[in-house]
Design goal:
Two copies of one chain form a homodimer. Chain A is α/β, with parallel strands linked by helices. Chain A has a single domain, classed as Rossmann fold. In chain A, 35% of the residues lie in helices and 11% in strands. A five-stranded parallel sheet of chain A has the order 3-2-1-4-5, with helices on both faces. In chain A, strand 1, helix 1 and strand 2 form a beta-alpha-beta unit. In chain A, helix 1 crosses helix 6 and helix 6 packs across helix 7. Chains A and B meet through strand 3, helix 3, helix 4 and helix 5 of A and strand 3, helix 3, helix 4 and helix 5 of B.
Amino acid sequence: MTPPPAIVLLSGGLDSATTLAIARADGFAPLALSFRYGQRHACELDAARRVAAAAGVREHRIIDIDLRSLGGSALTSDLAVPKDRDLAADEIPITYVPARNTIFLALALALAEVRDAADIYIGVNAIDYSGYPDCRPEYLAAFERLGALATKAGVEGRPLHIHAPLLHLSKVEIVRRGLALGVDYSLTRSCYDPDAAGRACGHCDSCRLRRAAFAALGRTDPAPYQ
Amino acid sequence: MTPPPAIVLLSGGLDSATTLAIARADGFAPLALSFRYGQRHACELDAARRVAAAAGVREHRIIDIDLRSLGGSALTSDLAVPKDRDLAADEIPITYVPARNTIFLALALALAEVRDAADIYIGVNAIDYSGYPDCRPEYLAAFERLGALATKAGVEGRPLHIHAPLLHLSKVEIVRRGLALGVDYSLTRSCYDPDAAGRACGHCDSCRLRRAAFAALGRTDPAPYQ
């Protein structure tokens, strides 16, 4: 039996690389979808390409979308990325990109419809979500309902499934799961503020969560650091 | 009192030009948002610019997004636009762009968040929707719920309002309303298949609905036809 297709949102970071491996383990033929959206760090997309190739993904689509013209985020404008901030602070960080997951899921929904896929994978997680509102479980459930109403497939009675397999996992559990599935984390990039060579800063939220997870497993993060 | 901002999705067609006039009449300061998404007819964007200028809109943003790479629609690929088809046919037409309104509303949501706007206007209508699933009232209600969950504003308790003032209007009622508000329909373009000079074909679904509406009001559509 041919595995059914699933759209996997792939940023090139640790979470999405793990999500891709899980989609495959779940029995799907993953179709990777990435975005060139004015990231300050283009090395993310290089990482996404390497991760997709290593996973043997048959199709990897990269959609251009100019989110810089919206402004409002340190990840796509000239605002400074916060370093060594209190990760337990209950606030929405400046690195939040307005409505990003809604935009990305909308495009995944479009590709799902074109490719006749009923499944979308996204690597968000609620525990380490650092205050992004569009990573919450109730948000994903609302998008699933929207997707069923928005598309031809939905009109014809075929529901849409948004899979967020990392949703209730800690970063340590994510890395453990990925290592068990053979993910090569040296290919991934998570840093919000890498240098020109693509090496991670080690001090932004993303770097600190990631390094702490490897350390908790008695390992060293294989990604390059400055 | 300064009028509150509202994001208005502006395609340059008859419906969105009317919606813009209604947003202003409702007491909002409209911020127009258009998309360069691989339309075969770039004259749409020229029309959007003219309509925004004529309405005295202070800010008109055009976001680049390459939907052509998704395929799947006669409006963004090389499939033929259907002519003189049965408008009463209960089918989703080939001109349907997968998940288009979801993508456009997601971007409007992002801009609403950046501009601190709680209101989005979209010119969809249910009666003449020609079979597009993402023009239905229940779809818009689902997006409103999603928007409240997706954003900082929502987390802070400020709801999002999706206004679809044309939703229950016939094309005749839309044109009547727009004429009463002073919309200059000669600036708008609706055709799915215009010629190089931007003149309408007169035979696609959009042209036929539009011309019939003006005719029913005893008027001639002022847009240029081939």
